[in-house]
Amino acid sequence: xxxxxxxxxxxxxxxxxxxxxxxxxxxxxxxxxxxxxxxxxxxxxxxxxxxxxxxxxxxxxxxxxxxxxxxxxxxxxxxxxxxxxxxxxxxxxxxxxxxxxxxx
Length: 104
Description:
This protein is of the alpha+beta class. The chain has helices at about 25-35, 90-95, and strands at about 40-45, 55-60, 60-65, 75, 80-85, 90. The model is unreliable at about 1-10 and about 15 (pLDDT under 50).
């Protein structure tokens, strides 16, 4: 993995022709989830700062989103991730579930 301290706004490389961005270490997991009908809409490996997070849509008929690792419902339909002062992304609901705080 590239040195994350030198990469401020850490968004990982493009991995397919549809310009699908994801962290390489969870690419296979996302592929399998989507293969089995779990519509993932956001993900981050945490880059050693935050827990792994995967956001998915509950069903095509319902506009509800959840974070997979914590099971927490996200009460917004976009902008799931927040950015800390160092440019790392996290989901506030997941941090609450894991009893963590934003790392300063």
